[in-house]
Amino acid sequence: MFKKILSVVLAVLMIATLVVATASCKKQDETNFKAALICLHGDSSTYDKNFIDAFKAACDAKNVTGTVVTEIPEGNECYNKAAEFADDGYGIVFADSFGHEQYMLKAAKEFPNVQFCHATGTQGHTAGVSNFQNAFASIYEGRYLAGVAAGLKLVELYGDAEGNVSDENAKIGYVGAWPYAEVISGYTSFYLGVKSVVSNVTMEVRYTSSWYDEVAEKSTAQALIDAGCKLISQHADSMGAPTACEERNIPNVSYNGVTGKNSFVVASRINWQPYFEYAIDCAMNGKNIDDSWTGTVDTNSVLLTELGSAAAAGTAEKLAAVKAELANGTRKVFDCSTFTVKNAKADTSDFSKAAYITMDESGHLTAYNADVNDDGTYVGETNVIKTAGGITYFAESEFRSAPYFDIIIDGITIK
Q1: Which percentage of the chain shows pLDDT scores above 70?
Q2: Calpha distance 83→89 (Å, rounded)
Q3: Could you tell me if 149 and 253 are in contact, meaning their C-beta atoms sit under 8 angstroms apart?
Q4: Do residues 260 and 400 share a domain?
Q5: Cβ pair 279, 299 in contact under 8 A
Q6: CA 224 to CA 211: how far, in whole Å?
Q7: Residue 92: which CATH number?
Q8: CA dihedral of residues 48, 293, 210, 253 (deg, nearest 10)
Q9: pTM for the whole thing?
Q10: Which of 3, 24, 64, 382 has an alpha carbon within 20 to 30 A of 57's alpha carbon?
């Protein structure tokens, strides 16, 4: 009898132990959260490296397992990799390139229990897929500040006693990847920053038709220098343009990192770590992720690098003052009183934006219908001109996170 009772007790203890062990395993699986980042290029791309560094830092901060894959083209390879991560139990998958969007959206529809977050995309707020989101930041503010630094450099090099720069020396160049709104918004905000210091500045833009092509970026920068440009900036991802500037002793304002030794002025960049931490935290705790999240200076999402050796004296103080004005709303990057659109064009074509633009007699915007919803028709449906604090301005990234400023304003030429 005693042996029988002992056997029953032992059996009960074994079952209890098994239940505890099973519960412990389940809890461990829940806490072992995994996040993935899909990148178009690798560390050699300043753009992708900026994402990779921020992602690793965010995973460390949130104590989660993070996996990065690089060299994933903007094609079905992106969907395959996203689906693979979902099958492998990852709770959230990020992708960093504009062309990844449709493939991330496809994966989101197939795996509703996994969060798919795409940087720079446009369809998060209209797709109606609860586990698919977009994110961007108000980098136009950072580029504007970098433009202010560029303007001060022109004055230091070529300004007269009153700080005026001759038309010949007030020409700058810009190496752009593609004629997309993201690039146009970026170089326009940079130009307006320069213009706030050098009122007669003009800018020539040349596209490389690639986000990352070191040879093309370098040769394009060289061509701009040969065309008389006294300072070069860029929205392209290699060291091509900065290398050309270093070799030709031309000041360079870069993007996403410090470049060059003697020619580097400053660079702006998006700090993606706050977004990665926010989205990971939401995914871990079952919270909704904003379908079109916009990082700002206040969220520490828009940063400038430390000033380079080529920066003009007094640049730090001026940037601090302008940054404060942007923060308190007394200055707007796309203040309509600071630019005209008399000769406005769409991208590089001769197609006029007149159907979407309303301007006053001087050529300043009073209304503009932007293609915010991006439904494939390329029809502007949302008036994005607002007035606040007595300033009428183009409200970039206020109706969705990704840029939609796509106007070629007066003073900028495309070659």
Answers
A1: 90
A2: 10
A3: yes
A4: yes
A5: no
A6: 18
A7: 3.40.50.2300
A8: -70
A9: 0.87
A10: 24
